[in-house]
Amino acid sequence: GWQWFGSFGSDRRKLVTFGGHGNGGRAEDGLSTNSNVGVQIGIKPASNVQLSLDPSYSSRHEYAQWVENFDTDGDDEDDRFVFGELDQDVFELGVRGSLSFTTNLSIQGYIQSFVTNGDYTAFKKLARARSYDFTPVSQGDLSENPDFSNRSLRGNIVLRWEYEPGSTLFLVWSQNRNESLDLDDPEFTPFDSVWDSFADDGEDVFLVKLNYWMGL
Fold first, then answer.
1. Which SS3 state, helix, strand or coil, does residue 183 take?
2. pLDDT tens-digit profile of 3-19?
3. Torsion angle of C-alpha atoms 183, 189, 190, 195, degrees rounded to 10
4. Nearest in space to 54 (alpha carbons), one of 16, 97, 94, 10
5. pLDDT value for 77
6. Alpha carbons 1 and 93: distance in angstroms, whole number
7. 80-115 in b/e burial notation, b at 16+ Cβ within 10 A?
8. pLDDT value, residue 81
9. Does 99 have pLDDT greater than 90?
10. In angstroms, rounded to a whole number, what is the distance separating the alpha carbons of residues 93 and 198?
11. What pLDDT was estimated at residue 30?
12. Of 152, 150, 148, which is closest to residue 197 (Cα–Cα)?
């Protein structure tokens, strides 16, 4: 197989910055493929303010992705190993911002949404041990449909105050939301899924960290 990678970026000293990257490859004589593209957009409207937006999209096709094992003869040892061809799409969106009130007081925020769908086809079992040969398997022989659709949302806000030289107080709010859907042939709708992730169940965590410098 082979892999490729490329990236570019503009002058980071400018008011608006722009960059991008891409990578991909092929394996198993082209039976499996992968690709990823992303961009980075930054804005500095003032010397104490920074904002960035980082969306990316990736996809992959796996010719033989493991699905499950079976014990067909009842001896408590797996003797059927089932694989499938997997088409997976992933969309990620990261937003980051920071604001410095003074040299000692600042606040940073970050939020990331993650969406992925997986669709399995062409199920097959390993024909014999120590080989890469397969024979077809009906989807009805599986214990469940392995297709999946997952999304998650992570975010945090950190207030940092250096109240004395070398002594710092951190106030942190972190939030995590996620949802998993078992769907037949799930449709990949990244922007709708990002929006829906804000309404998913999740948890909030509040943290306080205090550092005090003791000069000896």
1. coil
2. 999 999 999 889 999 99
3. -90
4. 94
5. 79
6. 29
7. eebbbbbbbbbbbbbeebbebeeeeebebbbbebbb
8. 86
9. yes
10. 13
11. 86
12. 152
- Give the tokens for residue 26: 């092929």
Please list, in sequence order, all residues whose beta carbon lies within 8 angstroms of the beta carbon of residue 39, skipping any fewer than 6 positions away. 18, 19, 20, 54, 55, 56
Return the residue matching tokens 């394996």: 27
- For residue 167, give both structure tokens: 């002594």
Tokens coding 116: 């992925």
- Token pair of 49 as six digits: 């303010």
pLDDT tens, position by position, 173-188: 999 999 988 777 778 8
State pTM to two decimals. Answer: 0.84
- For every residue of 43-82, DSSP letters joined together read EEEETTEEEEEEEEEEEEEEEEEEEEEE-SSSSSS--EEE
